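Note to self: user wants both folds in one dump. Writing first protein now.
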Amino acid sequence: MNQVTAQTDVVVIGSGAAGLTAALTAAEGGAKVTVFEKQRSLGGTSNFFEGIFAVESDMQRERYITYSTDEAFKNIMEYSHWLANPRLVRAIVNESGLTIAWLQKQGVVFTDATINMPDSPRTYHVVKGKGEAVIKALTTKAKEKGVDIRLAAPVKRIAKQGESIRGVIAEVDGEEIQVGAKAVIIASGGYANNKEWIKKYTGFDLDINLMPIGNVDKTGDGIRMAWELGAAEEGKSLLELYRVGPMGPEFAMGSQIEYAVVQPDLWVNPKGERFCDETVCFYDATVGNANARYKEGYTYSIFNDSVVQRMQERGIDKNVVIGIPPGSKPVDFYREMKAALERGTSEIFEADSVEELATKMGVDPAVLKSTVDEYNTYCEKHHDDLFAKDAKYLWPIKTPKFYAVKARTVFLGTMGGIKINEKAQVVDKKDLVIPGLYAAGFDAGGMYGDSYAIRYSSGLSSAFALSSGRIAGKNALKFLGK
């Protein structure tokens, strides 16, 4: 091995929201920082988020939003059934408003403090330019502070001597180099593209019955390296799940066919049976969990021309993204549908009868006909006897044409692996701190319990990445005596 020795104070593994935030925070405190990024571009999936959770921010106070850190902490913990790490949750909640103010100082612009689901606290701070703008701002400021950012430079392992972190071994331009450092912050973004780990820890088959969205080459490198140093495991099986469709290279994200798929009309499982109160569509984690019960990796949204007409006349009830709010009208729906069917898609089916639709779907016609008939009965009497769906969302499906669209189980990332404490310090199996080792973002567990906590905390995954990165950076400075 051709080995070149260099020295820095802090090494950060990964350049997403967590990594860049940690790096800039440490650099602001006077530390010499080197960031190693596996890819040839910065940010990873952090480029795509639209908003950030925060409580007691200046923006919320300006809008008379009184939701407090105490309320947020209690709601997140109750949502997780107290399986989340309460000290970590409290630290992230307390840091969240300060993180928004810090980001604004770095040049990030927020357009509103709002919600992206009904009847939830207004915690969602919408970013102008999405996550990409955050990554650009953090990168600019980090470089101004002297942070050395190295692209296409994967870290292979973390060096340790006795109880002390000594730095990392990284691959740069085809050669392995050793960079000395007293502190290492792991923020490599989880293991969303590691088929073996996905199967082992979640039971799904990647790209077959579980589809990753926006993740590239995330193989759990940071998690593996922490485990090799004796780190305890936490949250390694947790996924940020969602239900979306249709999927495939011929469909653009946010297509108008997708509008119909995510509305709270009639949803059925691969057998043609209804499986939930469809208003779970308003809560991303909940709908993802409901869909994930089916190991085929998909369910179906069933609708007809009257549903399309309703959407085109009065708009949708569920937004796909912040830029497509309730009330938006899918005026190009039929054009998109015709084009997809002419391409021979296997994601969409169209028929003049429910029985014909079932046959095309590969479902027992008697089962689907019974499901649709039962659902229409509930619509007629304005009461859902099965799942108690709000009557205002009971819209009958009686006349042709009939449509079925596959709604895939997708995920935006894995959400744990390394056990940390409230200071973002990595701990071992005895809960003892591994000195100089920190983890943040999707590599770190303990924030969510058994499911992504979305109901009272819109934008929590991006907020956790950013705030845990800030906490890691600040505590690395303390460890260094700066």
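First done. Writing the second protein, which came from a different request thread.
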Amino acid sequence: MDKFYITTTLPYVNAQPHAGFAMEIIEADVLARFNRQLGKEVFFNTGTDEHGLKLYRKAQELKIDVQDYVTQQAENFKKMKEILDLSWDNFIRTTDQHHVLAAQEFWKRCEASGDIYTKAYKVKYCVGCELEKTDSELIEGKCPLHPNAQLEIIEEENHFFRFSKYQQQLLDLYEKKPDFVLPKNRLKEIRNFVAGGLEDFSISRLKEKMPWGIEVPGSPDHVMYVWFDALVNYVSAIGWPTDMEKFNGIWPVVQLAGKDNLRQQSAMWQSMLLSAGIEPSRQIFINGFITVDGQKMSKSVGNVISPVEMVEKFGIDGTRYLLLSGGNFGEDMDITWERLTEKYNADLANGLGNLVSRIIKLSNSLQGNENPQSAANPLAVDFSDFTNKMEFGKALECVWNIVRQDNKFIEDNKPWELAKSDQKKFAEVMEKLLADLTLIAELLAAFLPKTAYKIKTALETKTIESLFQRIK
């Protein structure tokens, strides 16, 4: 049986889940469900990133134990499984003991490859990103992602990873696998970054300054840099290095990440894998940001939209649809409550919901009770192609083209009149509509699973509860 391993990035637990995280994990869920439909054995991984300076300081500020703090915060992300109807197989936490041991073994492998050394250095550091910043990355001396936070100067002796050693191997990887990073503009971006020259990066912190991290093997006065530790979850989640039969049976992985993670996921992590003697990831999909009225979501701006709020207003499948259909893959998606409501009403309440209600009610006038077979439709081929490429907006547009065509078909053929005047013609019209509705349910199973189930049930029972109520 073909195997398919997909993972999200691990969200940092310093804040509540927001719509951007919800979009990424729903996208991963769609790919997991879609590949299960294709008969593949799927492993869907997600979890939480729980080390680093930002979390340590927050726990100190709250005067609670840092482990208790991250455990409490991790629960907010675990709850997303039920809130968003997700089907993940594994939820890993970077404080899990098996992950800690795997991260330490990964360090040893990189060290054995001659890729870890120590040196004194001085750097500007953004605690918000948990990343070093060069002057070229700053705008008026501030991190563009955290403009309200002061950069800190770190000056100490750290362990470094020989990133510079892997420049050519990374360029060869991108050349050999042109779909390794998608969309293509992100592959071009990371190729240009790597071609411009790579600098070795720090992978440890002094424990006396930042004690919240995984201890460096053979160097008890240092803890691992949070990015080094967190990225290892992609291999530790599937048994590496203790269960190599499991690991070898499912690796490599398909990764989802946001565009602010491009460098870490598609260059830093890949060089670390090469150093540890592990084949690079299979594919990396890079998402744009969700913005609200043109501004990136931010607690300081006060424009954060949470998935919990969205589900309260639009329901689970309404939220999934709005986040999956709202923009082109890899590009930023700008949302407002007004535009979300408008799209919900147009596409779901007046579009799909109305179509399902009309067809099921009309089907009760049919003589006989055959179970319809799904229709052959060229749009279904396009749908599968778009889904595999993570062009979810385009995939859903294929489905909604069928919805719009069928709503027009009903208006043109007036089956409610045919039911009284021409049963043969009525049966032909209804055969097409029922076949299309069966196909719609099949196509939506990975995207809107509860809705797909309700449609299938309605087709069997010839009764329907309202799928989507119009929202004011």
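Dump finished. Worth passing along: The radius of gyration is 25 Å.
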